[in-house]
Recover the amino acids of this structure.
C-alpha cells in the first residue's frame, strides 16, 4: 500500500509550516506530569493537554491549518464538513477567524454540549441521520448548493499536518521520547503525530489507542487491509469514525502499533486523570492512558508522550467506576 | 476588636518571607482565563488554580510554611492537627518533606479520597466523632501523649502567611486587581489573601464567598461579634468550620465583604468551571465564582481575581444541575 498524492507530500516540514500558520490563533497547550501516576505505572508520562486547546480539543489545530491554507478565492466560497462534534466546532471557529462561512452536517443524535458550542460559533448546522451514508449524501447536497470547500475531518492533508503540531510542540518542550500515544479513530491526529514524531525522533514508537467496541484500526493493521466498523459500541463518542485510507497508509509506513482498550479500562483511566491531574477530559481522550495501563511491560521505564485529545464531555453522562479497578 | 499578637505581626513582609520559605516545595500554580465566562459575567476574571497545588489544594502553602518555620528543636517533636481533609494531607506532606512525624485527628465521616491521600503521605491518623468538642479533646490527648507541636488549620500566623502566598503570586503575575474573591470557612485563606492583596493594592476589595448553609462569617460581620454555626448544611465540605477569632479580626481590619451562596448556585458555578476551564475543582472552591455570578453589578467591568482553592472532589458524589440554571 502506497501513500497517494497529496498525502505523500506530508513531511515534518509540512508540520513546521502548519505550526507557523496556526500560531496566531491556536493555544500552545501545557504539558502536565503526575508523580503518582508515574509511580503507579513505572514510566515517565508527559501529558499534552489539548483539552485546553481552543474549542476544547486538538481538532482546532487541523481545521485552523486547513482554513488558513486556502487561497483567498477558495476561502471566499466558505467551508463545509460533516462531523459528530469537535471538528465541527473547530471548523466553525477557524472559519469565523478567517471571516468566511462554515456549513456543518451533523448527526441528529450528537451530544448537546457539542451542538451548542458549534451554534455559538456561528456555523450553519444541517442535521442528518446518524449513518455514514446520510452524512456523505447530505454534505454533497450542501456543497452543491453553496459551492463551499470540503474540509474533511481527518482524510485531508492540511488537517493531518495541523493535528501533528501538538506532537511537535510536545517534543520541542520535553525533548526526546521513547513512545507517543494518542487515540485513533479516523486517524487524523495519529497520522499527524506519526509524521511529526518520526521526523524528529526516528526510532520513537507510535501507538494508537482504540476502543475495543470500534476496533477497525486494530483489524486493519492485523489484516493489512483497511477494514470498517459494521457497528460501534463504546462510550468514546469521539472514536466511532472509521479509519481513513490515507491515514492508514501513513500510519502503516510509520510502523504504528494499535492497542485496544475496553470501556471499563477507559473509565478507570479517565478517573485517574480527573483525580490526579485535576483536569477535565472526555472519555475518548482517556483511551491513551488506558492503553498504557493495560500494557505496562511495553512502556516500563520509558519516556512516554500522551496526547490528551479533548475535554468536551457531557458531564451528566459520566458514570465513575470504583477507584481501585485500574 | 483588635488583632492580638502574634497575628498583629502579619504584614505583607510575612507573606514575602513565606513565599521564599515554601518556594522549594510548593508549585507555582497557573492562572487561567476564560473568554466565554468573562463574556457571560461582564468582567475580567483571573483564576488562580490551587487545585494544581501539591496535595490538590492551597492548604499545602500554609502547612508547609508553618512546618518549615519551626526551629529544629520544635520540629523534632513532630506536628499535630485536626482537619477534615486538605489541611491534614498538607501537614502530612510538609512533615514528610521535613522528615518529622505528623499526627492527624480526623472525623470518622471524612470522605474517602481525603482519608486515602493522608494515609499515603505517611501521617498517623486518629479518628474521632464529627464534633468540634471531640476533635479538640482528641487532639489535646494526642499532643499530651506525643509532645507534638500543634499546627492549627487556620488560626495560626504562619499558616495564614503561607495561604497568602497564592494571592501574592496571582498579583505578581497579573498586576493590579479591583477585587479578589476566595471561599471563607475558618478564614486562613481569606486572611492571608487580605494581608497580601491589601499590602500590594491598598484599595482592592476583599470578598469572602460562604455557603448559606454554614454562614457564620456573614453573621459575624453583620453583628460585629464572632458567631458560630450550630449546625451546617452544605455540599461545600471544606467550608463547614467556624471562622477563627484572629482570622475574623484580620478580615474586619481589611473591610472584607462576605457574600453567601446557595448550594444550587455553587453547583452551577462548579459546572461552569468544569465545562469552560476544563479543570477539576471541589464544590467548596466553586463558591467564589458563584458569589460573582450572584452579584454581577458589584463585579461588572472589573478585574477580579478568583482563588480556586482545591480539587479534591469525591467524583462519585457529584450531581450536576442543568447547565442553563446559572
Amino acid at each position: 500500500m502506497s501513500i497517494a498524492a497529496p498525502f505523500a507530500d506530508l513531511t515534518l516540514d509540512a508540520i513546521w509550516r502548519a505550526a507557523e500558520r496556526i500560531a496566531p490563533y491556536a493555544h500552545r497547550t501545557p504539558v502536565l506530569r503526575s508523580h503518582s501516576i508515574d509511580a503507579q505505572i513505572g514510566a515517565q508520562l508527559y501529558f499534552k493537554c489539548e483539552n485546553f486547546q481552543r474549542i476544547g480539543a486538538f481538532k482546532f489545530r487541523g481545521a485552523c491549518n486547513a482554513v488558513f491554507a486556502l487561497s483567498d478565492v477558495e476561502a471566499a466560497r466558505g467551508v463545509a464538513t460533516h462531523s459528530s462534534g469537535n471538528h465541527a466546532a473547530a471548523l466553525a471557529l477557524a472559519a469565523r477567524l478567517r471571516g468566511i462561512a462554515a456549513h456543518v452536517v451533523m448527526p441528529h443524535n450528537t451530544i448537546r454540549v457539542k451542538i451548542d458550542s458549534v451554534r455559538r460559533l456561528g456555523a450553519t448546522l444541517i442535521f442528518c441521520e446518524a449513518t455514514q451514508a446520510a452524512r456523505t449524501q447530505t454534505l454533497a447536497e450542501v456543497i452543491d448548493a453553496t459551492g463551499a470547500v470540503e474540509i474533511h475531518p481527518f482524510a485531508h492533508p492540511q488537517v493531518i499536518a495541523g493535528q501533528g503540531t501538538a506532537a511537535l510542540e510536545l517534543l520541542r518542550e520535553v525533548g526526546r521520547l521513547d513512545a507517543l500515544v494518542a487515540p485513533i479513530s479516523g486517524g487524523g491526529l495519529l497520522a499527524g503525530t506519526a509524521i511529526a514524531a518520526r521526523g524528529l525522533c526516528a526510532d520513537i514508537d507510535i501507538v494508537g489507542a482504540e476502543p475495543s467496541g470500534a476496533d477497525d484500526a486494530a483489524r486493519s493493521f492485523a489484516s493489512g487491509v483497511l477494514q470498517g466498523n459494521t457497528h460501534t459500541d463504546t462510550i468514546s463518542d469521539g472514536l466511532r469514525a472509521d479509519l481513513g485510507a490515507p491515514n492508514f497508509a501513513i500510519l502503516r509506513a510509520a510502523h504504528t502499533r494499535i492497542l485496544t482498550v475496553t470501556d471499563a479500562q477507559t473509565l478507570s483511566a479517565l478517573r485517574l486523570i480527573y483525580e490526579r491531574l485535576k483536569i477535565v477530559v472526555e472519555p475518548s481522550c482517556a483511551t491513551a492512558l488506558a492503553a498504557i495501563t493495560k500494557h505496562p511491560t511495553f512502556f516500563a521505564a520509558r519516556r512516554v508522550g500522551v496526547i490528551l485529545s479533548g475535554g468536551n464531555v457531557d458531564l451528566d453522562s459520566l458514570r465513575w467506576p470504583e477507584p481501585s479497578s485500574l
About this structure: DSSP finds 14 helices and ten strands in chain A. The interface with chain B takes residues 30, 51-52, 56, 113, 271, 274-275, 277-281, 311, 315-316, 320, 323 of chain A (CB under 8 Å).
